[in-house]
Amino acid sequence: MENIYVTATERSPELLFDFKTNTFQIRGESYPEDVNEFYGSSLEILEEFLKAQDNSDISFIFELIYFNSSTAKVLMTLFELLDEVAEIGNKVVVEWHYDEEDDNMCELGEELGEDLETAEFVLKSTSD
């Protein structure tokens, strides 16, 4: 499967989905005009790939500076998917990176991480 790389813009984050190493990253700001258009096909491919994994190590790294409510819904769905993938026997580690001075992004990461039941959640400030 070919890796997915989407360059960040002023309103959308960088996506780097490396299917060979099972390392997936979303970095930057996320408030695209049409969240479904931006994330849709990439997340469909990701979901299909992840659900086919068996006993794999999977790493998902979030390094978001800002996101809007539409992106928050996408993130919640993505966290649910990652937890489902962990429940079927994969080792899933979700890393939430935030600027040490940004309490809001820290709290948002904590809230999303609290919903994970099986996947491992790691909260990292940029000073770590």
From TrEMBL:
InterPro entries on file: SiaC (IPR018530)
Domain SiaC family regulatory phosphoprotein: 7-124
Pfam families in the cross-refs: SiaC
Highest taxon of source: Bacteria
Name listed for the protein in its UniProt record: SiaC family regulatory phosphoprotein domain-containing protein
Source organism (scientific name): Candidatus Terasakiella magnetica
